[in-house]
Amino acid sequence: MSSIYIKRAQITDLNEIMNIISQAQAMLKADGSPQWQNGYPDTATLKNDIMAQQCWVLMVDNKVAGTATLIVADDPNYREITDGQWENNTDPYATIHRIAISGDFAGQHLGKIFVSNLISQSYQNGIRNFRIDTHKLNKRMQHLATSAGYVHRGKIYVSEPAVNHEDNARLAFELNL
């Protein structure tokens, strides 16, 4: 069995993180999704995540196998939800953003382990409400969210570079423990 754990990302991990993000962008493009196709997320975004101690890496046998940003704060993109509503709109919540697994580790179901570890990290700090979003064409992320217990709650719009407004529409998911 492999040694699998999460740790806060360091600046020295940035090149590996950006390689994983590039792989994910290529996969989304191949799937026909406009998500992450207009320069987002870029190096500056991930560097800011690292400096804010919000970027995490999934380690497998001492190799960076995945990256994700875990934010415990009100997300302005989540304030307006259409076609549904949040179940818990009062308690603090943690949001997982910019999650990706290296193609070198594909097929090992590491995304579910990563999400579970991120939820556990937040749970230890008193967070019981979790949110995540993805594009309607990102079936992998939808499957990951629902397999981790998240429930589809509606649609939100994110503020990312996009060709048109509908490209910024995201399916919004919530998990309450």
From TrEMBL:
GO molecular function: acyltransferase activity, transferring groups other than amino-acyl groups
Alphabetical keyword list: Transferase
Domain spans labelled N-acetyltransferase: 4-177
Source domain of life: Bacteria
InterPro entries referenced in this protein's UniProt entry, alphabetically: Acyl_CoA_acyltransferase (IPR016181), GNAT_dom (IPR000182)
Residue ranges of the TM segments: none
Protein name, per record: Acetyltransferase
Species in which this protein is naturally found: Companilactobacillus paralimentarius DSM 13238 = JCM 10415
